[in-house]
Input
Amino acid sequence: MLYQSVDGNGFFTTNSQFNKQIRLVRYINSQSYINHHNPDVILLCERLRKQFILTEILCGIVVLCLIASVF
Output
């Protein structure tokens, strides 16, 4: 029950445990939540996964812009 180890809004801060953060990110990216019994958890994980994807795209665009500005 990985989702139960998330301890509120402060989970992704520097004070939280890094191993739990990595396990949660892997859990969401691998879509292991699909077979969860609670539909609310599935919706929250899907929303968070979409936010991860958007953040990755934004970081990629920023890196490309930085590379383009150098040349």
